[in-house]
Amino acid sequence: MNKLLKQLAMLLAVLVIAACGQEKQNKVNGGQATGSADSVSVNAVQAKKSASAGKKKSSRKRKSIMTPGATGSPYEILVVGDPEDYQNGAYDSLHTVLVDEIPGLPQAEPQFQISRVTTSTYSKDLKYCRNIIEIKIDSERYTKCRMKYSQDVYSVPQFILTIQAPDARSFCNYVIDNHDAIIDFFNRAELQREAAKLRDNCNPNVRKAVMKKFGCEVSVPCELGKYKSGKDFYWACTDKGENDMNFVIYSYPYTDPETFTEEYCLKMRDSVMKANIPGPLDGMYMQTSRPFVRVYDSTVHGQYAQFARGLWDIRNYDMGGPFVSISRVDEKNGKVVVVEGFVYAPNGIKRKLMRRLEAALYTLMLPDELDLQNNQFDLDEITIKPED
After folding, report:
1. Which of 112, 136, 229, 310 could form a disulfide with 293 if both were Cys (CB 3.0 to 4.6 A apart)?
2. Measured between alpha carbons, how far is 173 from 175 in angstroms, rounded to an integer?
3. Are the beta carbons of 44 and 30 closer than 8 angstroms?
4. Across the strands, what pairs with 110?
5. Cα separation, 339 vs 336, whole angstroms
6. Taking the model in full, what pTM does it have?
7. In what order do the strands lie in the sheet with 12-18?
8. Which domains does the chain have, with CATH numbers?
């Protein structure tokens, strides 16, 4: 990570959605780009919780209720540049980053859908797009590369990311160097939007069941209308046969930091799934496709979290798909709480289904968070500095 991005990362902007759906913005400090696989000590959880509890509400003013609603589909980005930016490699480098494959899926699916226009055709209607990237290359105005963003400028909800550079070559190098930060910025923006929708329109039966069994609160899509409950385990699914979405929550005792090793994470997942998610015949059950899984450390709501992304399959049966899980520490009860979303869509695009489920995982509120009446959830650090 270059020096500039490290400075920007110290001014991380936290997107916060209140329980009533009102948007607020917090800022927290951090030293790594969001989504980093760098190790985070479990012993630091309490310190992070204290810091999170002390966060102040932003004084940022809300946009007028007359501001138009944003246009465009989720994960769609409009790129705006001068004609030469589409010939000198600047746009090509950006396009390569934005259409990179989504990790953890069985087939290649791009991160974003891209449209492009020139600055001269950047009309008023186009400025309402929900996600916009502006290419700004000018040797007279800029001496170094920089990224910054603006929120809800022409419509709501909207993010406009501006990438500045003195020349095309430095622009290309800068975009490639900050590949993860650019993708993470828009991914988290979209997750926040979807999580806000789920908070207002979720399956009440799942919410009640999870509260009763785990003392936690979570918001999952209304379509997940079939349920199964077991010991320290709950499963909700659409049960469509195809394009099937599944949500799972389970818990087990937290013993020490070794609980959060990759091997222990996958061992517990396989044990729980074998006991609770059988295949069509005896001896068949869900298991983790070990060669196709990535386990890494990150944060959720300012707290330590362990993520796992990859593929699952049914032992001795031709059935499988992608999954994502988040493991967090329930300090009040001395447990690890795991929320997971997995999809079975053998003939369909899995990107949209997985992203809806991942947004639901971020809405999990642990018992100590509910005790603090912290009735809000946020998506962690956005690593670009907002406009001054």
Report:
1. 310
2. 6
3. no
4. 101
5. 10
6. 0.79
7. 23-28, 12-18, 376-382
8. 201-382 (3.40.1000.10)
